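Entries read sequence, tokenised fold; example below:

***
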Amino acid sequence: MNRKTTNNAIKGFTLIELLVVIAIIALLLSILLPSLSRAKDIAKRIGCSANLRSLAMAAIFYADANDGLVPSSTNTWNDNGVWRAGWVGQTSAPSRTALDIHEQVYGNGSDEFTGLHKSQLWNYIENTGGWRCPTDPDRKQLRSYCMAGQWWGKHYRAPTNSIGYDPGPDVYKKIADIKGPSQRFLFVDAIGYNLDAYFAIWYTRSMWWNIPQFNHGGGSVNGFADGHVDHYKLNYETVEMAENGNISNGYRMPQVYVPDSDDLAVYQRATWGELGWVP
């Protein structure tokens, strides 16, 4: 009896075929990964925009409930010599040892202005994630947004000068006091540790002060006095200057003159309404 022998051997890939498959996979990854990265960046920008819109609307709601007065952008004394907290209030010390723990959110008992829950806006945004940009590299801080410097809301007296002790522009207690609220910052997406929650920028000098965010595609998302938010892309020179600044341990841009900076003029006008220096 003759028996047929069946060849059940399975033919494998040749080396060339395997290399071709690997090359195709590598090509697909090189095409897809940048798209996935851009999608991730866009998602973070959307999250940041939502945070800033919530803050801007919270300030508007707060004003509606307080005779039109917005919270103050920083801390100061009133006419009676009483210390008043700004919209958040500065922390008890420059040390960041408690910035990412319970005490910094709810106050440590020794500083009446410490803690997000002491903000005039906490009742509108009782979520710590809404106070911080998703791209902020400083993981030790719970708040990366700052209120723009022109707002003096609940304080009884306005300052006589702007940042840097130069003669200052107008400051405002009420949103209704300004013209063009759609062109004026309420909140600025900043970067680096900002102790006083106040976005400071020169008025009479062609110099930066605080560092604007640049992790959103080389730009920042900011909240305006009419409640809308907008993304602003910074020039390469501004981003380079910010990256070379004291970001990890401070909150200032390098204090150098930049008379030809379009970015600086945009941020100064959106803060103060005008330039206090001649371009």
